[in-house]
Specification:
The chain has three helices and nine strands. By secondary structure, it is of the alpha+beta class. It has a domain of 71 residues. The strands form two sheets. Strands 1, 2, 3, 4, 5, 6 and 7 form a seven-stranded mixed sheet that branches. Strand 5 and strand 6 form a beta hairpin. The longest helix is centred in the N-terminal third of the chain and has 8 residues. It is globular, with a radius of gyration of 15 Å.
């Protein structure tokens, strides 16, 4: 299977909550559309410094992670971020990769949105067993 990419909308969840409380206007909520590589082998979502800067996501902590080549590195974790794809949404934190590194949509937000990688079409799709709403597994 080749690489799979998806059109994802990212929204600063703190801004969204502040708009809901009428602290800021809806037009002040920072959001952006990104094309992310869908990586079911990665647990978390990863964005880059450019995305983090544009969304002005607050730092939560620094965490160590093992990357594909086996090295253990430390990255900032920011959030919360609302993640939207098709008729699905999730809220999660994200690792911040340096510079303009390619952003990754990992398995945890994919599970929360109940989306799948279609192997023949090589694209992200909503789960055809639940086309109208996400169904999460509790077992």
């Amino acid at each position: 299977m080749g690489l799979v990419y998806a059109n994802i909308d990212l929204i600063n969840a703190v801004d969204h909550e502040n708009a809901r409380r009428n602290i800021i206007g809806e037009e002040e909520v920072k959001r952006m559309h990104v094309i992310m590589m869908v990586d079911s082998g990665a647990y978390m979502m990863a964005i880059n410094e450019t995305i983090q800067s544009q969304l002005e996501l607050p730092l939560i902590e620094r965490r160590k992670v093992q990357v594909a080549d086996g090295r253990v590195v430390e990255y900032d974790v920011v959030g919360p971020i609302h993640v939207h794809f098709a008729n699905r949404k999730a809220t999660c934190n994200a690792f911040v990769l340096p510079g303009d590194c390619e952003p990754l949509l990992g398995a945890i937000p994919m599970e929360e949105m109940d989306v799948l990688i279609h192997p023949l079409r090589q694209e992200l799709i909503v789960n055809p067993e639940h086309p109208n709403y996400a169904v999460l597994k509790m077992k």
